[in-house]
Specification:
binds magnesium ion; Rossmann fold; VC0802-like; 43% helix; metal-binding; 7-stranded mixed sheet; Carbamate kinase; elongated; NAD; binds adenosine-5'-diphosphate; 29 strands; alpha/beta; 29 helices; binds aspartic acid; amino-acid biosynthesis; EC 1.1.1.3; 816 residues; methionine biosynthesis
Amino acid sequence: MKILKFGGTSVGSAQSISTLVQLVKEQQQQDEAVAVVCSAMSGVTNTLLQLVTEASEGKAYVTGLKTIEDRHFGLVRTLLEVKHQNVALLGLRLYFNELEELLAGVRALGEASPRTSDRVVAYGELCSNYTIAHVLRQHGVNAVFADARQLIRTDSHHGKAAVDEALTNQLVKDFFSRHADAVPVFTGFIASDQHGNTTTLGRGGSDYTAALVGAAVGADQVQIWTDVDGFMTADPRLVKRAFPLKQLSYNEAIELSYFGAKVVHPPTMLPAIARGIPIIVKNTFNPSFSGTAIGPKSSVNCSLVKGITSIPAISMLTVQGGGMVGYKGFSGRLFSALAQAGVNVILITQASSEHSITLAVSPAEAQAASTAIEAEFRYELLSGRLSKPSVEEGYSVMAVVGENMKQAIGLSGKLFSALGRSGVNISAIAQGSSELNISVVVSSEDLSKALNSVHDALFLSPVKTLNVFCCGTGNIGATLLRQLAQHQEHLQTSRHLRINLAGVCNSRQMLCNRDGISLKNWQNELVEHGEPASLERFMEQAALLNLPNAVFLDNTGSTDVAGVYRELFGQSFSVVTCNKIRNCGTFSDYHKDKQVVRKYGVDYYYETNVGAGLPVIKTLHDLLISGDQVLKIEAILSGTISYLFNEYRGDKTFAAVVREAQQSGFTEPDPRDDLSGLDFARKMLILARETGLPVELQDVQIQPILPESCTAAPTVEAFYQELEKSEPYFASLKEEAAASGKVLRYIGSLEGGKVKIELVMASPEHPFFGLSGSDNIISFTTDRYRLNPMVVKGPGAGAEVTAAGVLADLVRVAAY
Ligand code: ADP
Ligand code: ASP
Ligand code: MG
């Protein structure tokens, strides 16, 4: 015998009921005896509970009731042939009349007791199962409608009654013997007490009904048909990348469901354990998928952690005071007082000093818990040995569950570092003594971030997701996004890295989307769904998404954007930037940034600040980390100046070379911005600071290339005229160099704590002599590379190489 239980969505539409019929028939074709248990149609239990409340408040309930009625009647008309419709409609009509009378009574009384509430809510299961029994019969199944109020006996704890298993067993067995060849269709969730009053088994309790029926008849299997592919690693609504589990032990399923995985109601496992009946969780909307098998054993060849669940809202109750230290009976009194008040304690942590105990309870029970504790310990409170229990709201519990976690060394490390990296603050931790579960209490705002980052770290490692917010979509930004689009597959397969573009902002528009903006189609998405840009709002929205592994990319040259990094670090964003403005501010800011980065455990990478995509800063760091001493750095870090001197040969005047370069787009609109050496000086400043020198920009000595008259010229045109006039000066430099077989080079150097940039006549032995085009070159003379300096050389500008450098930094963020 198999018990097939169908949840709300599985009986919520004509289509899903047709699937149900088909599934039952398939079992019968295989000569398998079947019993069916169904919930109320999706949403009906909630609506009925709402109607009870509204009726008790004197509000109108007729429209709500009519909606439920129409839904059932509609299904009867869709699913049953006309000749079968009348009987079914008549039966339903009777139920709805009773329901209406009940609600009228509630309204007249102006109150609804839990007992009345149970009576009302039972109609959800009565109506759905009654309808389904009729549909099955029309399809040739010998279905018998079974009102579980006659079969499942409970105590009188309305809303969540405790089952008398022995009596229930007997009643169910008797029912089966009276209906030997039939397919019973049992109402889930509802039962009755010894006085015949309707009770319920707690929200989601139809699963439990199925297990009770299964245990009574010694079923071979209980199948829970629902709307997801089985028990999953996390709630798929909260964690997009959750995936279904093949196998779970009863204990794991209990632990997961107790901590919020509502896919199976927690007590369901108990009758199944007692009889060793496997529970299979399957998807009505994807019936061919194998689903999850819950049985005595956990699967062996799989990850140590099985699932992550959460209880979204809990209250934290802390009891503290010197009176507790070493006092043996304290906990006993505390917990029996809570039990007597009917408070369910979700989690307990006690400080090792025994000075305080913190309990997590449902917010609905927090007041009762507090009152019970105050009553139990009134003398201790009076004498000051204990202080009044404090209650804090706004917390959630996340639990990580797995039978094999006992053997997992380093698992908590992974868990806590994932939380730490995402900036999630942990308010309390508890590990079950079975080591089946580690629970952490976090603020409710952080729950989604906590679930996702821990899920990624424990299940999807090695695949990591970086949530990227890209500011600036000019030349470099757009190139970077194109490169990411091209390489995303490669990044996923070879680097186990997934880039989720969670935000884009340029000077005109901005857009944030937790589920990701297309790397290929971001321009259109930005135009279609974007809103007018504002850096402040972009940051606000990015922070509100509260995503784990969040990275802010600055592809602008903006001072405003550079000004927000520190705030971003404080919100657990890593920053990757090609904008060098921030690193060229005061040394004190530069230094403070590094401290803040360390404090929040985030990354801050800006390799492209110096030499675009060339590995300059990283190389310098590697030398320093390995204990080398930097004696001297020499560099040509202005591609434009390099290019100009390389081109300044033959008959062309220097002014003509500059003009050509400007026309080809190699210089800034005002070429003096390059020729002033200021940008070069900024790069030298950053290099010097990276070696540990506390220098300011004005400490960098710049030997000007341009004569004063050129610098002072009021317009670009006037500048060119002055430059033409200065040709004799440049020509004399060129000739002097040529006469001695040398070339002109504008070289930055850092040595003995001094940073300078000067025009040098380099002889053929000089390592920079042979530099061509617009290349950059950097040579590091260190203790180890004393005689033969280490040299990095290559193109030091251009969107392709700069974007590639930013991309490489991004990959480094993921490499923790
Ligand atoms: P039914 O009405 O079929 O009983 P429920 O709504 O009670 O369905 O339970 C199924 C829902 O449980 C899923 O739609 C899913 O959103 C939620 N859920 C929470 N945690 C998990 C989990 N770990 N695995 C699968 N589903 C989960
Ligand atoms: N219909 C009930 C509820 O919504 C029981 C169930 O669905 O299992 O809680
Ligand atoms: Mg359910």
